[in-house]
Design brief:
- This protein is α+β, with helices and mostly antiparallel strands.
- The chain folds into 3 domains: 1-11 and 101-153, no CATH class; 17-86, no CATH class; 156-219, Arc Repressor Mutant, subunit A (Orthogonal Bundle), CATH 1.10.10.
- 38% of the residues lie in helices and 31% in strands.
- It contains 8 helices and 9 strands.
- It has helices spanning 17-22, 54-62, 88-99, 126-134, 156-159, 163-174, 186-193, 197-219, and strands at residues 2-10, 28-38, 44-53, 67-71, 76-84, 103-104, 108-111, 116-124, 140-149.
- Strands 1, 2, 3, 4, 5, 6, 7, 8 and 9 form a 9-stranded antiparallel beta sheet that branches.
- Helix 7 crosses helix 8 (197-219).
- The longest helix has 23 residues, at 197-219.
- The chain is globular.
- GO terms for molecular function: DNA binding.
- Residues 16-149 form the HVO-0513-like N-terminal domain.
- One of its GO terms (biological process) is regulation of DNA-templated transcription.
- Residues 161-212 form the HTH bat-type domain.
- Keywords: Transcription, Transcription regulation.
Amino acid sequence: MRYATEVITWEDNAFHPLDNALANENAAHLEETYYISPLQDGTYAHLSRFRGDMAVARDILSDTDAVLDLEGPTEQDGLAYLHTEPSPLLNELMVTLFEHEVVLKWPVTLLNGNPRGMRVTLIGTDESVSQALANSPPDVSVELERIGQFDGSVSPLLVSLTERQQEVLATAVSHGYYNMPRETTQAELATELDLSSGTVADHLRRIENKLASTVANSWV
């Protein structure tokens, strides 16, 4: 099996009203999408993780015509179910998956900078992955980050992490961050990863929270 990880970016107002509604809101944003299911009536059901003040997010999305339903946390951070209208670009991206017989590795990480975008990993045969990469919608820019043979023996713990979080964790482990005593600092990891110290600290906090939660849930 072949995999390809790419960053897809688009101009403002191009992707979906859901994304546009939160684009300039600092109090809350859409962090990851765990699954998107096309429905028979042409709409979509999403399972997505929000970060920040969910009361603010709910107020904004309740005024967004394309958001038909929202169920999830009422205060801070968490997974939410959304039912939304389609958009041309979202439809084109989903058609790419169906036409070229590739599988999308979930979750998909949303990039909340400028330009807007997402990091996705496609999995399939050599031919299907190559075709999908070559036939991206014309309204997006695509930057290929990595491509290679997909190892189907990925740890369930690592599957819970985003591509960026896996990169940060791998760097932290290889540089001895989790050794006793520690052999590196967050500032040194930040230099290695070309990130700010605050961003590295935030990534590590989220990684440790996800891994601890995954292990704890496996005991229930």
